[in-house]
Design brief:
The structure is a single chain. The chain is about 25% helix and about 20% strand. By secondary structure, the protein is α+β, with helices and mostly antiparallel strands. The protein has a single domain (about 10-335), classed as HIT family, subunit A (2-Layer Sandwich), CATH 3.30.428.10. It has a nine-stranded antiparallel sheet, sandwiched between helices. α2 packs across α5 (about 250-270). The radius of gyration is 20 Å and the shape is globular.
Length: about 350
């Protein structure tokens, strides 16, 4: 690693968003007297009669879950976006607003209440990936859906309201802010070089081998050079493809293996059920030529030093720019040692 980057404050550039992040390696040694989170207890119940997501239970809207055996998907009972909406807009001077439509679904990864992705077998995770592919294709083919966001919030500290292993799929008519930024920067690089920016980035990361945590035949798990969260990681397909439906059966298993490896490493890091938000960024479903897109999955975990110390985005980070104390190289080294 560059000696200067290891010991001095500096900025790192995010090639996907065009934004900078401040890195301050020397601050990791400061004493901590701030807030401590409660360590989440590991779940032991395979079935919880009070859980809205367990098989056979009745959800809050009165619908009963089927006695499902692997993956279960349903329309979100408290959807942030609705399919049926009234077109409406406001454009009064500097006040601008417009209606937004979409479909929100919940995907239960397993009927076993006690598990998380880290506890599931690779082939069970592969079934989740198959369901993600099916949902991306089904929702993306709808006329009013131009983007499908697959994500998971794990742990109460990340705002997860139910500990049952599940994720969400929000699809909408417009492109979210992060996707607009990534779309523009990938398009600009592709227009200039006729190559995927993440394909070229991955080649450089594999050559340096400083931030690579794990790799198999189809995927690489790494800590991005521009990582914002303390132990942020990215899963990148080695081949340039726009969305997850382009994966072969074997590649889906490799993807499942990559998810299994990194989530297990997270749980070992601070000996807890590691909280995070994860999400897949892939090409919009807007019927445009999106060859510039190279899909990827990111994990944003909030834990900083231990199971009880959380990284908060406050102060300078809210008013200036994101800042981190632990370098991407240090984080990758620690995670790599746990695999």
């Amino acid at each position: 690693m560059n000696h200067f980057l290891k010991h001095n404050s500096h900025r790192r550039y995010n090639i996907l968003t065009g934004e900078w992040i401040l890195v301050s390696p020397h601050r990791s040694k400061r004493p901590w007297q701030g807030q401590n989170e409660t360590v989440a207890k590991r779940k032991t119940k395979k079935y919880d009669s009070e859980c809205y997501l367990c098989p056979g239970n009745t959800r809050i809207n009165g619908e009963q879950n089927p006695d499902y055996n692997d993956v279960f998907i349903f329309q979100n009972d408290f959807a942030a976006l609705k399919e049926n909406y009234i077109p409406y807009s406001v454009n009064e001077g500097l006040l601008k607003a417009e209606s937004e439509s979409g479909i929100c679904r919940v995907i239960c990864f397993s009927p076993d209440h006690s598990k998380s992705l880290a506890d599931m077998k690779v082939l069970a995770i592969a079934k989740v990936i198959e369901a993600w592919c099916q949902q991306y294709e089904e929702l993306g083919q709808m006329e009013n859906i131009n983007y499908v966001q697959i994500f998971e919030n794990k742990g109460a500290v990340m705002g997860c309201s139910n500990p049952h292993p599940h994720g969400q799929i929000w699809s909408q008519s417009t492109l979210p802010n992060e996707i607009i930024k990534k779309d523009e920067h990938q398009q600009k690089y592709f227009n200039t070089n006729q190559r995927s920016i993440l394909k070229d980035y991955l080649t450089q990361e594999l050559d340096l081998n400083e931030r690579v945590i794990y790799k198999n035949d189809s995927f690489v798990v790494l800590t991005p050079f521009w990582a914002m969260w303390p132990f942020e990681t990215m899963i990148l397909p080695k081949k340039h493809c726009q969305n997850i439906t382009q994966l072969s059966k074997d590649e889906k298993v490799d993807f499942a293996e990559a998810i299994s490896i990194i989530t297990k490493a997270y749980d070992k890091l601070f000996d807890c059920s590691f909280p995070y938000s994860s999400g897949i960024h892939q090409a919009p479903t807007n019927n445009k030529n999106n060859n510039h897109w190279h899909w990827h999955m990111s994990f944003y975990p909030p834990l900083l030093r231990s199971a009880t110390v959380k990284k908060f985005m406050v102060g300078y980070e809210m008013f200036g720019m994101p800042q981190r104390d632990i370098t991407a190289e240090q984080a990758a080294r620690r995670l790599r040692s746990l695999i």
